[in-house]
Amino acid sequence: MSNLIRIEEIGLKIDADESELRTKILEILDLSESEILSYKITKKAVDSRKKSDILFVYSVDVEIKDVRAIKIWEGRHRVRLHPPYVYDIKQARPGILSPIIVGSGPSGLFAALALASAGLKPLIIERGQDVDSRQKAVDNFFKTGKLNTESNIQFGEGGAGTFSDGKLYTLINDPRSQFVFRELVEAGAPQEILTSATPHIGTDNLSGVVKNIRQKIINLGGEFRFNSCLTDLEINNNRITAAVINKTEKISTDDLVLATGHSARDTYEMLYDRKLEIQAKPFSVGVRIEHSRESINQAQYGSFWQNPKLGTAKYKLVEHIAGERSVYTFCMCPGGYVMAAASEDGGVVTNGMSRFAQMGDNSNSALLVPVMPSDFASDHPLAGIEFQRTWERKAFEIGGSNYQAPAQLVGDFIAGRASVKMGQIKASYPLGVKLTSLDLCLPDFVYRSLRKALPLMARKIKGFDNPEAILTGVETRSSSPVRLIRNENCESNIIGVYPCGEGAGYAGGIVSSAIDGLKVAENIINKYLTNF
Predict the structure, then answer these.
(1) Nearest 5°: phi and psi at 258?
(2) Which CATH number fits domain 100-280+480-527: 3.90.1860.10, 2.30.30.30, 3.40.309.10, 3.50.50.60?
(3) Confidence band (pLDDT; 50, 70, 90) for 532?
């Protein structure tokens, strides 16, 4: 029996020393000092519900001499056995052909890492550039308004998350996440992601992390090819036989992992033409809302808002509105920036990012409304893509057809009038904004729901409906508009093709995408264990 146990919900006052945890552990377990061998913090969160008494709340793993000495297993601290988790990658016998992974976002990278660790020598093809070249392409877009449609905030090494702060928050309870976090730290991510309740790597750190994971995969026998777009599949007897790259090069394979990301629209169209089973799925549409960082800190932390232990404040809100659709915040970026995330000519798309320090002047988040397949113009599996395009193109036109983004002050938006002048908060969108009415580039059910939600959200976060806060549109890429159907072995209706990650409709962020990549890799590895 394991002698490792986990204790949750241990609260310490903001000015307490963490060494006091040991005393708390002894009290909770009703054990003597000599019975505790060691302990380590596994999670640390801020409880700011009571502004006059902010707490740090911890989960800890405790090693004790004899688990039979514990008499209290119930109660609010949820004491339980917690044996260590080890992610075991079995060694496989390589086939004649290498597995091909399409996309080098988190699902593609972690699928590749597992396959390479198993000895299967994957080939990773990425339509965009390596992360350093990609950064230059993004910087050039911000400076000149000239969009590289193959290498941008959506496409390129590291995936869309590379320019989205590297948020690692997840609600899924999968032990593989421990492996993902350890690999990220080994690759250079901050050590604190192992314990933070709201872990993030920071866009400024992610490029180094991504390059180090790439190098580890190469050292294990994998290969990367950038500027290499999957443009067709060769299929024989309903089985994948080759991938066509950049319309001219054919690479034979028995295993193809589709880790394309949620913006690979031309790839979805090709897959539909090749009869891969695809369904339309719900996603969300909305805007980015920006407040000053200090105002959010004050609203969340009260008189403690300048305490250096607390860092930049975060929030997460949802409102269920009678007669309209729900509204929720997503991808909150403390001390962050609104980003220009277009991947197609003639469309404006917003996203958010933070650097690791989270010390930008503003804090922002997406403010989103669910969109259902019944809202689309047809029942075609790719109709959600056209829905996205429609509003992205309207935003482009309303913004001036130069990749500036349409924006509106919250006070004007609630009042239903176009904005004509900025207040004290300055928009962070890098290409500039054009003040207007966002009603012109949002579906009516979206702007109606947002208009009703903002005052309600201000009841939870003081000043959330600040008249000078900025709404910037449009955010349309919160998740994939399609699901690529797969079976219990993660295989599509075409044998040997494995849809994977957020773009395939099976994940919703960096960690869940990485875990899905591991799951797909496990199923491929299992195919090559039978000869051992």
Answers:
(1) -95, 95
(2) 3.50.50.60
(3) very low
